[in-house]
């Protein structure tokens, strides 16, 4: 058996936005899981769950508060206003104290029974454990297909992603401390975590229906999040403008010869035509190309301002 002082403590982080309908059940299930793992000597007794109230407008905070008084596993933070899922999650991760951190949504879509499997993988020496959905049948047809296309697009753009993994994951203290070095404002967690490196693995779980309440990710927020994923990792869209500018310039170059030929060697040219058409092609191409070049520099500045760490030392002897 593992000696007592080596049994890790776990902090579970749960961002909550208007989740009064599910919260009592979530609290009950998560505390039961923690209790069981403490009994099994897989976790030490300082393990707990941090609920981060992301500026809810319903009774979410009151529920967290009242459970915190009666249930020693429950702790809570209340953000001063709604800052979005990723930021609420970060607030919890930055303030939680455990040796192991697991992030999970409040709506019980992510199966809490995978928590034990994640802790087991940590015990085997993995610093990061991804929760991966084995099936997406509970998602709508639309969400499933758009999500799949999106993951493929990101992969094409060179963003390292774990397929069918959202924000249900385990991070060791070591991995979390590395994550904190990424100081950028809009942190796309599921893209950054694979960049950390470290030994990682995944655990499969079945994605359920939302236990109660409605999705807090309407289409508009989802699209913004999707754009964030592309623009924080890749300047492929800017490259595309440069490429387009180059093609248009090339095309303009040949068009100019053609216009001149028509003008000089045939009688079809309307007076004034060549002097209008040539600049249109020429300026169009040059403008797009210049825009792309400027864009390339902006992309460089953008990447620099993120001041991402250049390396991570995993071990030292
Ligand atoms: N959430 C949050 N702040 C927000 C929106 C969502 O903290 O502004 C939380 C929400 O309470 C839930 C998690 O993020 O715990 C995921 O949201 P949801 O389940 O609504 O997203 P979906 O599963 O529909 O993509
Ligand atoms: Mg959900």
Automatic annotation (TrEMBL):
<keyword id="KW-0808">Transferase</keyword>
<keyword id="KW-0328">Glycosyltransferase</keyword>
<dbReference type="InterPro" id="IPR029044">
    <property type="entry name" value="Nucleotide-diphossugar_trans"/>
</dbReference>
<dbReference type="InterPro" id="IPR001173">
    <property type="entry name" value="Glyco_trans_2-like"/>
</dbReference>
<keyword id="KW-0472">Membrane</keyword>
<dbReference type="GO" id="GO:0016757">
    <property type="term" value="F:glycosyltransferase activity"/>
</dbReference>
<protein>
    <submittedName>
        <fullName>Glycosyltransferase</fullName>
    </submittedName>
</protein>
<dbReference type="InterPro" id="IPR050256">
    <property type="entry name" value="Glycosyltransferase_2"/>
</dbReference>
<feature type="transmembrane region" description="Helical">
    <location>
        <begin position="273"/>
        <end position="299"/>
    </location>
</feature>
<keyword id="KW-1133">Transmembrane helix</keyword>
<dbReference type="GO" id="GO:0005886">
    <property type="term" value="C:plasma membrane"/>
</dbReference>
<feature type="transmembrane region" description="Helical">
    <location>
        <begin position="240"/>
        <end position="261"/>
    </location>
</feature>
<dbReference type="Pfam" id="PF00535">
    <property type="entry name" value="Glycos_transf_2"/>
</dbReference>
<feature type="domain" description="Glycosyltransferase 2-like">
    <location>
        <begin position="11"/>
        <end position="179"/>
    </location>
</feature>
<keyword id="KW-0812">Transmembrane</keyword>
């Amino acid at each position: 058996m593992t000696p007592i002082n080596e049994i890790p403590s776990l902090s579970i982080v749960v961002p909550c936005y208007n989740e009064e309908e599910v919260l009592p059940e979530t609290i009950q299930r998560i505390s039961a899981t923690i209790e069981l793992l403490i009994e099994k000597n897989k976790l030490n007794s300082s393990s707990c769950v941090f609920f981060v109230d992301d500026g809810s407008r319903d009774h979410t905070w009151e529920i967290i508060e009242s459970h915190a008084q009666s249930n020693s596993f429950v702790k809570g933070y209340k953000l001063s206003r709604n800052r979005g899922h990723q930021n609420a999650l970060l607030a919890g991760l930055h303030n939680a104290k455990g040796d192991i951190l697991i992030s999970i949504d409040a709506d019980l879509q992510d199966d809490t029974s995978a928590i034990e499997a994640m802790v087991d993988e940590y015990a085997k020496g993995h610093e990061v454990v991804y929760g991966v959905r084995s099936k997406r049948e509970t998602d709508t047809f639309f969400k499933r297909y758009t999500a799949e296309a999106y993951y493929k697009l990101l992969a094409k753009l060179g963003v390292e992603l774990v397929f069918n993994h959202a924000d249900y994951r385990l991070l060791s203290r070591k991995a979390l401390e590395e994550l904190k070095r990424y100081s950028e404002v809009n942190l796309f967690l599921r893209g950054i975590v694979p960049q950390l490196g470290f030994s990682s693995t995944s655990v499969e779980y079945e994605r359920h229906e939302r236990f109660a309440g409605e999705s807090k990710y309407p289409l508009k927020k989802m699209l913004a999040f999707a754009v964030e994923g592309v623009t924080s990792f890749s300047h492929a869209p800017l490259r595309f403008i440069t490429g387009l500018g180059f093609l248009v310039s090339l095309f303009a170059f040949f068009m100019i010869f053609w216009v001149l030929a028509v003008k000089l060697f045939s009688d079809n040219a309307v007076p004034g035509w060549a002097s209008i058409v040539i600049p249109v092609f020429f300026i169009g191409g040059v403008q797009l190309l210049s825009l792309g070049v400027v864009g390339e520099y902006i992309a460089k500045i953008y990447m620099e301002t993120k001041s991402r760490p250049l390396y991570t030392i995993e071990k030292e002897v």
